Amino acid sequence: IAACFDRRHILISFSLDTGFSFSIPPKTKLDTMKFAAAALAVCLASASAFSGPAKLSSSRNVGAPSSLLQMSTVYETEVVSERAEEPEVMRPPINLPWNSIASQLMEKFGYSVADIAQYESLDSNKEDLMKLYRSMQLARGFENACNQQYMQGKIRGFMHLDNGQESIPGLVDYAIKKGDKKLSYYREHTHALASGVDAGEIMAELFMKDTGTCRGAGGSMHIFDKEHYFQGGWALVCEQLPYAAGAAKSILLDRELGVSDDARYEKQ
Question: Which string of b and e fits 112-150 if b means at least 16 CB within 10 Å?
């Protein structure tokens, strides 16, 4: 920070992250002195906000009035207090203990004690752990192959990959059944794989071939498979949520009415 004074102009320059300078021609010598005092106060206040109180004590050697130093100290205190305020968390992270999750599964979803025990025994079940690992490896390999074909221009249009989120299709493959209704969003290649949809048909859909899941008409964001109840990827953010809620409601109604699908996946 620099301040220069003469009989014609007063020049104040700030060499901070965003520097600026201005020049004002004073009318009288008294105006010059008043403006110099005000400019020096601004300089000290700005410097204290960035340098801290340790450097304020050394500024007394300049010969500045104590009132200016006090003003700069008050300014610094206000800035520090503003920075100390913690931002409000709109959605705190979910951190539920397993006992609470297990009780919800039994109360809300009808899980039995034996079903809960299967989850608790997963850590020591090598066969199930290998199933999860193979599902994640398949998801990563499939997405890498999609990326290579897209970069070569063989897959056209939109394509959203799911790399780094292989744990989701791994859990889908482990937990759900073929008859469960499945709705996904626009990164659904690996979700369709985990639901049992043939990998060749998914890739053919990305290539817009007639042998694809939608005969090439859906593309990357709209994988659909009737046999595995995979009801498509939806292109809009969160678009699958109302459809999934409606599907859940229809399942509850079917249970109350005692109806289910026949061999042709039609309601009876």
Answer: eeeebeebeeeeeeeeeeeebeebbebbbebbeebeeeb
